[in-house]
Amino acid sequence: MSKFIENQNWRYATKKFDATKKVSKTDLETLKEAIRLSSSSYGLQLYKVIIVENPEIRAELQPAAWGQSQIVDASHLIIFANQTNIGETEIDSYLENVSKTRNMPIDALSGYGDFMKGKINTLPEEAKNIWTAKQTYLALGNLLNAAAELKIDVTPMEGFDPTQFNQILGLDKLNLNAAVVAAVGYRHDEDATQHYKKVRKSNDDLFITI
Predict the structure, then answer these.
(1) What is the rounded average pLDDT for all residues in the chain?
(2) Secondary structure of residue 89 in the 3-state scheme
(3) How many structural domains does the chain have?
(4) Is pTM beyond 0.70 here?
(5) Where are the alpha helices (DSSP H) in 37-83?
(6) Rg of the chain over CA atoms, in angstroms?
(7) pLDDT in tens, 79-112
(8) CA 21, CA 18: separation in Å to the nearest integer?
(9) Which CATH number belongs to the domain containing residue 31 in this structure?
């Protein structure tokens, strides 16, 4: 755990990436597995993770992200896109996966399935989309932590126009919405931000014990 805290102190939201340095295929697979193993409500994972390597597409995305250099300079651009307009189909697909993975009869999961459907399907459409968008941040957290362990920099980004991202990437046609973006790579030596002392609230200001 001491190493974990040390790595959390090491990481920061990188402002300038070294465009010449690329994350290895092995490390990328580790980051993908960390994302895949992330917790999510009911275990449904109601999102897709788009990894953009194509420089032309990233150049097209940059103006929709306030021109931020991380979009094009980072080794990889990862977009967490929540599923929209979800319903029974997604829940049934999850139950089939549980049945196959755990070698259980699908009938044994019907009660749990009915419970989820009763909770989720009654939500207004906007509330469901907000809920699925929140799930992407759990996966983002896993990415941040795993990357810090590998000494790979990640900049989580909300500074972009989701509508434009959706159009450029064709996400709206797939019932997906770009919820949060992560630029992944290695900090540039010229990024002065890496030398700033980390600013966080004190324990007294942050925690309430009841």
Answers:
(1) 97
(2) helix
(3) 1
(4) yes
(5) 55-61, 70-73
(6) 19
(7) 999 999 999 999 999 999 999 999 999 999 999 9
(8) 6
(9) 3.40.109.10
